[in-house]
Amino acid sequence: MVLKLSGEAFADASIGYGIDGALVARIASEITEAQKQLGVEIAVVVGGGNIWRGLAASHRGMDRTTADYMGMLATVINGLALQSQLEQSGVITRVQTAIEMQNVAEPFILRRAVRHLEQGRVVIFVAGTGNPYFSTDTTAALRASEIGADIILKATKVDGIYDRDPKLHPEAKRYERVSFTEALTKRLQVMDSTAFSLCMDNKIPILVFDMHQPTNVRDAVLGKQVGSLVTD
């Protein structure tokens, strides 16, 4: 499976940015349990919004390409933080980057990534796709397609997919299961359009769930009802 973590999953809640070591440790423990105890092959795609948001910077006048490359570097920082915590838990981990930086991480090579997964290692994909104008959601969809993942687990701030923003509309309806076609028709904001199209074309289900609920990764792996499932 591919676990998609936003940069917010790493952020210090008191200030809204940076890296909270306790949060990273909790995420690492959930990945460790799923990988060691449940025998799941896990790849992780991390965002960088807790450090830098390229799109927001471009709206403030910065060149979009430069801003996006800075965002890719932010994902590398988060990936290294997660790797450190995972290895403290005894999980062998490899960070693969879409932008070559040989002193920090391996370059992304598909066959090598698949081999790492087969050997029981957790692979963390960083630096997005290596190209500006693409989100880390698109990275998750692309990597999941490349490695033949069975599902994408998308950890978010809410407990599923709603027909409208539940923070602004208390009466918002939450979906337990929705088809790709229905999500498109109702314009449910599951992922950005490029990522969503990739998942739909390659028939990769997307499970959207609350990243702040400690047992959700385990429950999702065990097939329990968690969050909202987008499926063919």
Structure, explained:
The chain is α/β, with parallel strands linked by helices. It has a single domain (about 1-230), classed as Acetylglutamate kinase-like (Carbamate kinase), CATH 3.40.1160. The chain is about 40% helix and about 20% strand. The protein is built from eight helices and eleven strands. The protein has helices spanning about 20-35, 55-60, 65-90, 110-120, 135-145, 180-185, 195-200, 215-220; strands at about 1-5, 45, 95, 105, 120-125, 150-155, 160, 175, 175-180, 205-210, 230. Strands 4-3-5-2-1-6-10-11-9 form a nine-stranded mixed sheet, sandwiched between helices. Helix 1 (about 20-35) crosses helix 3 and helix 5 (about 135-145) runs parallel beside helix 7. It is globular. About 45% of the residues are buried. The mean pLDDT is about 90.
- Taken together, the total number of domains comes to 1
Radius of gyration: 17 Å
- Provide the structure class: alpha/beta
> CATH-wise, what's the superfamily?
Acetylglutamate kinase-like
CATH top level? Alpha Beta
Strand order in the largest sheet = 4-3-5-2-1-6-10-11-9
Largest sheet: 9 strands, mixed
Strand residue percentage: 15-25%
What value does the average pLDDT take?
A: 91
Total number of helical segments?
Answer: 8
Write down the secondary-structure element order: EHEHHEEHEHEEEEHHEHE
What is the total tally of β strands?
A: 11
Low-confidence stretches: none
